[in-house]
Amino acid sequence: MDYDPKKLISESFKINDISDIECRSIFFGWVLDIDSKLDINLAIKTLHEKYSLSNPTHPMTRVLLEGLSGGYRAERRKRDKRTHT
């Protein structure tokens, strides 16, 4: 299964001197773009396992690890359509 079809995560590992903030921004874009039918926790775990050994000190490795500890829910929250007055 390709959990990074647009290569956002893999390309981030190729950027020299990328910051934690930039990696978080890329990660956020990846999360928003991932197919809602996929298990996001499995996707993060798979990507972390794929890149962490060869890039242990890279900021994206840390961001993926933070994502793993976040324990994202399998279902995305639905917006509350009630109006507030």
Give the structure's gist in a few sentences.
The protein is an all-alpha fold and 85 residues long.
Tell me about this structure:
The chain starts with 7 loop residues before the first helix and ends in a 15-residue tail after the last helix. The longest helix is centred in the first third of the chain and has 14 residues, at 20-33. With 85 residues, it is mostly helical. The protein contains 4 helices and no strands. It has one domain (8-70). Residues 74-79 have low confidence and may be disordered.
Mean pLDDT: 88
Helix content: 40-55%
Low-confidence stretches: 74-79
- Strand content is under 5%
CA radius of gyration: 14 Å
**What's the total count of β strands?**
0
| Largest sheet properties | none
Our count of domains comes out at 1
Distance between the termini: 46 Å
Given the C-alpha coordinates, what overall shape results?
A: globular
The number of distinct helices, counting runs of at least 4 residues, comes to 4
The protein's oligomeric status is single chain
Question: What structural class results from the helix and strand content?
Answer: mainly alpha
Helix and strand string, N-terminal first? HHHH
